[in-house]
Amino acid sequence: MNESRKDTVAFWLFVSPWVCGFALFSGEPLIASGLLSFTNYSLFAPPSFAGLDNYSALLNDALLAKSLKATLAYTLLAVPFHLVSTLALALLLHSAVVGQALLRTLYYLPSLVSGIAVALLWSSLMDPHSGFIHTFLSSVLGLKGPLLLQNPKSVIPSIVVMDLTSLGSTTLIFLAALQVLPAELFHAAKIDGAGRLKTLFKITLPLLSPVLLFNAVMDVISSLQVFTPAYIVTKGGPEWSSYFYVYYLFRAAFFQFDMGYASAMAWILLLLTFASICLIVALTRPFVYYENKPAASNKGGRRHVV
Amino acid sequence: MLFEANRTARFVRIGRSALRYSFLYAALGFICFPLLWMLSASLKSTAEIYRYPMRLLPAKPQWNNYVHIFEMAPLGRFLLNSFWYAGVTALATVAASSLAAYAFARLPARGSQVLMVLTLATLLLPGHATMIPQYLLFNELQWINSYLPLVIPAFAGSAYYILLIRQFYTGIPRELEDAVKIDGGGRLQIYTRIMLPLSVPPLVTSLLLEFIGRWNDLFSPLLYLNDERLYPVALGLTSFSSQYGATPWPHVMAASTIALLPLLLLFFLTQRYFLRDNPVVVFQKRSNSF
């Protein structure tokens, strides 16, 4: 056996756990859920072909519309909040010399707390009877009534605020990306007399754009799948205003045992995710720096978003 | 004149830096406040939680809360479950990922480029899209209410770690492989004697990230485990909040603190691989997204 032949055999042996595992546990289920979405299936009887019934039912489902609205509202609020605040923190942290290592660690620590504990913690802080935030708002600002999690208008922003504890991990990602940017460009900008704002918008942000895009995409993917706050804190309420898509999917599948309908929902989620990614990539195309760069400063973005 | 200008410049610089640090510390307050509140509330009595006006610190720390939580629910059991579950799955995922990463970094084969693109594409798949047929598959195999559906898929590895580790392998000089080749060693020996020993930082980072992710995961355990005694600690926290009518907040917070401690310990032990100016962190999987 010659060397290149050996390489090929070894390649497939080494990737076989990944390829087989993915095909079995993700690929096959993905296709199966596509097929199931055209059936009526309740777990207790074998699936029966239902044509497009599930999809036409989706169109007339008022609850689905509400859950889509809640999920999109959350995503549209959470992703910009998350990206802007973490980027701002990373930029500040990058230029802070004293105590940077300590701040970095302290920012990161709260993101070790599990989503469940975070959700429980915030629901305690936002509790209308004993919660710190409620007490603060009513005693200091004089705000009364069903605020925060009990009000359909404020429940989504309140859930976005819960994300505060996990800001640290994304901040560190941006900080790491900032620290490997080529220093000579910044020297050159300084010599040319560029001010801080100009340097930020003409050099730092363009160089960072692949990492920003990558994080925006991953953020959108995970935000569209938001589940824990609804499951732990709000149970989808009040008035279905936080009835997130995956929470509905979970209930349709494991409370109503409507596997066919839930599979159709899963495929809609898949399409929605891909549509959002395409939209982001198309909208940001003029602003993202796609030129070839040395490997060290090109960690995240462009290769990932084909 | 010159002296004056220098002084103004200095004032501006000091002002700027004061502003920067006050922002950074204000942000630190917001980010860390919930964590500190958790610690404080875990030491309060139930009556004190509901007292008005509230205090930031407990009047008299109730250390007993930390004893009671082990009686209210099988918390020790939960922790044990989490340790072996997160440990085994982290090892399995990173082992499989590092094998695939080696193949992508060093073994030229037809189709490897296409497979790489497909691997990247899997990052974009929303995991919940495959939830139902996956459940049906494991139901068919009679694996429900056991750890098999949670552990076995981990042996496939994950695209995140394949990319992260591959990046590192690609940077290892090829000349190092020559020594193994002269000894007549094959590709497996190159992998075990050169690649693995030189790649401790990305391997430890991956292990840690996956361990944290599994330790904190809610969704899969919720789906597959029915028996409370099988719960990992993250899911076990829900049995504190829903068991009784009114939520016993001090106990929930104490249990949350206990659930966090092993991760803190692990984090400080591995920090030198993990939190340096390490570009590796750029790839970091958001372990804590909801």
TrEMBL record, chain A:
Enumerate the Pfam families for this protein.
BPD_transp_1
Q: Which InterPro entries match?
A: ABC_transporter_permease, MetI-like, MetI-like_sf
**What are the transmembrane regions?**
9-27, 72-93, 105-125, 161-183, 203-228, 263-283
Localization per record = Cell membrane
Q: Which CDD domains match?
A: TM_PBP2
Which residues does UniProt assign to the signal peptide?
none
> What name has this protein been given in UniProt?
Sugar ABC transporter permease
Q: What is the lineage of its organism?
A: Bacteria, Bacillati, Bacillota, Bacilli, Bacillales
UniProtKB/TrEMBL annotation, chain B:
Where does this protein have coiled-coil stretches? none
Q: Which InterPro entries does the record match to this protein?
A: MetI-like, MetI-like_sf
Tell me which UniProt keywords the record has, alphabetically: Cell membrane, Membrane, Transmembrane, Transmembrane helix, Transport
Alphabetical list of CDD domains matching this protein:
TM_PBP2
Q: How does it sit in the membrane?
A: Multi-pass membrane protein
Q: Where does this chain mainly localize? A: membrane
Q: Where is the ABC transmembrane type-1 domain?
A: 79-270
Membrane spanning residue stretches: 21-40, 83-105, 117-138, 150-169, 190-212, 249-269
The protein's location, in the record's own words, is: Cell membrane
| Homology family | Belongs to the binding-protein-dependent transport system permease family.
Name used for this protein in its record? Carbohydrate ABC transporter permease
Taxonomy, top ranks, is:
Bacteria, Bacillati, Bacillota, Bacilli, Bacillales
